[in-house]
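Quick one, tokens below. Sequence please?
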């Protein structure tokens, strides 16, 4: 019984405390009052003078965008003119070369000597080839029957072979060392006649006029002279057969293949070249060998 009375008293106390708390909260909260807005009062600026229209400065952001065109026009640009077609070059008219009066050339092939001292054989080879007879230099040289006996000085006089009958010395030797020399016109003329040019003729003492006339007639002429048209000393030796031989240690032989009023054309086998030399130069060097020549006709 006592226990029931204590529980009731606790419950009533709790209700009293809650109610007191809620009443306190309501008393402490602010009371909202309705505020009526005051009537608007018109405000005016003080008068300072006559009113003037003001132009507003437009900034970049305020500018109006340009009106979009209703039609678009495209400027016409003509295409570049085509490049003109190249004008074909006019072919030069063929003009036949005509020699001047008194100017004659002979189409003799140019050969270079194949041995140190076989210039006479190389000139012979060119003369035969002009007439269509082709031989190697070595095969022609075999007919020259070289005399290989060495040169000797006897009592101060040079003795050596006879170039009128044989090639003198070693064809690969040296003139200045007296180990090889050459051959003269009789041997070359005999080989030319036996190898297809039977009408060839040769000798010594020919006049320059005879040589020029033969060239003008189209006949190649082999002559003896000094190499490079030099003028070393001309001396004599005694051949083994007793003949006195006129010689130069620059002895050389070429074939002439043309003539003009002032010059002769030379096929020079020493260099395998062809050039012109004045008649005066030719005659001076040729004279040292007593105007020796072989005419191929």
């Amino acid at each position: 019984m006592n226990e029931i009375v204590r529980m009731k008293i606790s419950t009533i106390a709790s209700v009293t405390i809650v109610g007191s708390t809620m009443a306190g909260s309501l008393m402490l909260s602010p009371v909202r009052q309705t505020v009526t807005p005051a009537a608007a009062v018109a405000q005016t600026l003080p008068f300072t003078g006559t009113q003037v229209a003001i132009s507003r400065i437009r900034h970049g952001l305020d500018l109006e965008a340009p009106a979009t065109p209703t039609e678009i026009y495209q400027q016409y640009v003509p295409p570049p003119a085509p490049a003109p077609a190249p004008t074909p070059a006019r072919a030069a008219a063929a003009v036949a070369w005509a020699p001047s009066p008194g100017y004659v050339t002979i189409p003799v092939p140019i050969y270079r000597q194949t041995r140190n001292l076989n210039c006479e054989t190389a000139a012979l080879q060119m003369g035969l080839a002009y007439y269509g007879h082709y031989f190697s230099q070595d095969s022609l040289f075999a007919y020259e029957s070289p005399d290989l006996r060495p040169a000797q000085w006897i009592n101060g006089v040079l003795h050596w072979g006879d170039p009128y009958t044989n090639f003198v010395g070693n064809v690969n030797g040296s003139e200045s060392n007296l180990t090889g020399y050459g051959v003269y016109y009789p041997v070359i003329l005999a080989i030319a006649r036996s190898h297809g040019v039977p009408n060839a003729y040769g000798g010594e003492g020919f006049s320059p006029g005879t040589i020029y006339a033969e060239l003008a007639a189209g006949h190649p002429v082999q002559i003896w002279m000094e190499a490079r048209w030099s003028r070393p000393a001309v001396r004599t030796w005694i051949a083994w057969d007793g003949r006195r031989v006129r010689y130069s240690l620059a002895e050389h032989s070429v074939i002439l293949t043309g003539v003009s009023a002032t010059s002769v054309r030379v096929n020079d086998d020493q260099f395998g070249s062809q050039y012109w030399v004045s008649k005066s130069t030719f005659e001076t060097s040729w004279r040292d060998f007593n105007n020796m020549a072989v005419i191929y006709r």
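DSSP finds six helices and eleven strands in the chain. The helical segments are 2-28, 119-130, 137-141, 185-194, 208-216, 279-287.
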